[in-house]
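Quick check before the chapter quiz. The format below is the same one you will see on the exam, so make sure you can read both the input and the output lines.
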Amino acid sequence: MIRALRTAASGMIAQQLNVDVIANNLANVNTTGFKRSKLEFQDVMYQNLRPSGVSSGGTSLRPVALEIGHGTRATSTERLFTQGNITPTGNPLDIVIEGRGFFQVLQSDGSIAYTRDGALKMDGEGTLVTSEGFIVQPEISFPDGTSNISISIEGMVSVLVAGSDDPQDIGQLELVRFANPGGLEALGRNLYRSTAASGEPQVGNPGQDGLGNLNQGYLELSNVEVVEEMVKLIVAQRAFEISSKAVQTSDQMAELTNNLKR
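Here is the expected output.
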């Protein structure tokens, strides 16, 4: 019975973590560029009470083993980088990545982070930055008197400057891709950091080397499907209830055993 209590408790802990992940997905349903996660589980060690293949008498062999499992545990949270819905905004500095790729941004500590959030801004010095003020790399600075900002699907940034009728190219937006984007470390604030599991960042222009195209005046919404997450939440709740029922049953059996009289 003690083993059953621990096994059922491991199921309750695992489902609590599952609910935590689902809750985070639902909380970020309106977060620009957010990518949902899913929790993955695996069973843990088994106690082999009788191995398979041993003799059961004479020349007969036991075809299956007698094994007792010890529950489950959470192993990883996989981030799913499927494309989120695209919505028009009309803002010339809102940029959506259609396909693979991340923007590079320079953090305040000098390190490079990566984001799918294309809600970009212009700071007081005319530099292209994120909503947090991190400078987009490579750095793009808009000259004084800038108007009519145009960003091509290949990432070329052009502007009209006061007093000129001809567009002027002022910079090239680049994207980064990873062999395993699921291995990126989430930093919050819509930012990711590369790790050994993600592989080295591969930089290129939009539309080249498997990188997506850019679309000006649009934003990528979260890829969270509310109905799907709600169904997962119900399933996790039922699994938690079943594990708690196993705890209650084991406790009742232990009580009956303790109350046995000769």
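If your answer matched, good. The chain has two domains: 2-80+224-258, 86-220.
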